[in-house]
Amino acid sequence: MSDFIDTILLKQEFSHADLVLLLNALGQDKKKLFTRSAEIKKQYVGNKVYFRGLVELSNICSKNCLYCGIRAGNTKPERYMVTEEEVLDAAQFALDNGYGSMVLQSGERSDEQFVDTVSTLLQKIKELSGGKLGITLSMGEQTEKTYRQWYADGAHRYLIRIETSDRELYYKIHPNNKKHDFDIRINALKLLREIGYNVGSGVMIGLPFQTIEHLANDLLFLKQLDVDMVGMGPFIEHEDTPLYEFKDSLWPKKERFDVSLKMVALLRIMMKDINIAATTAMQAIDKQGREKALKVGANIIMPNLTPVKYREDYLLYEDKPCLDEDASECRNCLEARIHMAGDEIGFNEWGDSKHFAKRNNSPKE
Ligand code: 5AD
Ligand code: SF4
Ligand code: FES
What we know:
Blueprint: H1 2-9, H2 16-23, H3 27-44, E1 48-58, H4 84-96, E2 101-106, H5 112-129, E3 134-138, H6 144-152, E4 157-159, H7 167-173, H8 182-195, E5 198-201, E6 204-205, H9 212-225, E7 229-230, E8 233-234, H10 253-270, E9 275-276, H11 280-285, H12 289-295, E10 300-301, H13 308-311, H14 327-340, E11 344-345, H15 354-360
Parallel strand pairs: 1-2, 1-10, 1-11, 2-3, 3-4, 4-5, 5-7, 6-8, 7-9
Helix pairs in contact: 1-3, 2-9, 3-10, 4-5, 6-8
The chain binds 5'-deoxyadenosine (5AD), iron/sulfur cluster (SF4) and FE2/S2 (inorganic) cluster (FES).
FE2/S2 (inorganic) cluster (FES) is lined by residues 322, 325, 329-330, 333-334.
């Protein structure tokens, strides 16, 4: 099969059949894929890795995604909201340590009080950093008015994972109701683009009922949507969620990890200049998961800045790393890991996706 792989890897565009074949690649063929994606990374985005300091703002969520450990229906986690002072301390830490950006992530809430709290936080982070810290939001689906308000307050990137681009599979991993509507989610990504955000999305890999064919379509979907940023990683079952009942039918964890790496590598080849995160879920399965993802094409890392006392209440999945390590420990750990992967850290830079800058022809920095 090897010569065949060489020919496919040199194509300008991959077909669905090419992607299925590459996602199934093993041994030498898999190595060739990873060598090619590493070359493309070097050529198009270089070896600089950007930090996004992550604050998991609140685990209060009005949704009930069937895979997620903090879904509204799970009564086990103690629900929290990080205080303003704690968020600003995290922002100060990010600034002092040369992180170019922060990500504020939260369970989904759209009540006025929450929307305004986020607005205030955005304004205060901008003020504290003199506009130096870039801000990404990962707050789920909101109204167009809210997206616009938060953009005006200083957020300029927004992440909404589509989770799977297959409508049928989407409704197998979400309740089938208005709160979990596939079309609204797709539309959210379009709205965010129109408003001017850098738009990020992504999928989970190794979901119950998911096939390699679905994942090949996910890659084509992300390309078609022309996203600026992607975060994707393995699905990891959580005991207190409805999907746990399918745990025995899942791919072995090692395989979910392996396919996740191939997804990162393929996306890097398909979308050469976007930002791709080495996600925490990769490290939940493999101790060197994030370094491995960097090696095959990822260029973004999200060190956790959430105060340690909240972390075990933000367990979206099992085996989530860094439960006891505070911001400084994670910083040291990640610096070492990035160097081990042969990369450097892009300190004090926003590190927006080159793809976004090219499309808009007006970099913001
Ligand atoms: N395994 C892996 N990833 C998960 N997420 C939520 N639950 C899980 C899980 N069990 C991811 C989803 C969501 C992001 C915040 O976390 O992709 O968009
Ligand atoms: Fe809420 Fe997000 Fe978890 Fe869904 S994945 S239940 S929206 S926190
Ligand atoms: Fe948190 Fe390694 S990244 S301890």
